């Protein structure tokens, strides 16, 4: 692990732990892609057991993905590859142009996107009063959290909510793309959400690449996205990673007030790689900055209104 520039987040997963990663699989086909030596996407791990990629038997570790949903992968970072999938109108099938050893040209492959049916992580309650308050509890950022949050907000708005409390206490984070999707519900399209600083050369700390991810187009659900909403975020020392990406984006863009206690301070991003024995390896691949350029690693997000209290399990 030292050869990987290991930090405290770099670790091995047993087969059960690696299989549990499926709930954070935004791609939904069981493939982990990363830029290869020639700049095109490469399948860097065996397909996730039980996934559509594994069941197909048509793609394996080491294969090159020349195109993803019709988009050339050359020059795209790991995060940009996820963006290609996330922007796709077809949520049920992903298409690939795959090159294996000996192939003269890419061969077409269509795989079913099988995002696990995860128990709804969001609870919502409407409190009556002069201004109707919608309360939303978000326990993690898994592959479905962005759409679940949109559904919850749309439902509360239909009931007349004009103010919202989003409770992220004890939320340890999860899928990077889900945090961006969630933040996009409150920000105008094109508003900066997070900047990722990715190490290009593990042996040279000065070789870095920065990418800024911006708010996506409006949700198709009926939540009337605008920054006039009165939004309060509740954080504590158990709020980390994707929770902090989401919270930093809303606060830095003046779309929410943060209350509670200082968040955990996990400003690094990990990738998960499958190994031949069905175990996995978690490796830190990047760090992130909030829209204001703030690095929160080891520091966390300080609340605008401090309300100390116990963390929520």
UniProtKB/TrEMBL annotation:
UniProt keyword Protease present: yes
One Pfam family this sequence matches: Peptidase_S41
The keyword Protease is assigned to this record: yes
Molecular function, one GO term: serine-type peptidase activity
SMART domains per the UniProt record, alphabetical: TSPc
Domain PDZ residue range list: 29-91
GO terms classed as biological process: proteolysis
Domain of life: Eukaryota
Keywords noted in UniProt: Hydrolase, Protease, Serine protease
Protein family: Belongs to the peptidase S41A family.
Protein's name according to its UniProt entry: PDZ domain-containing protein
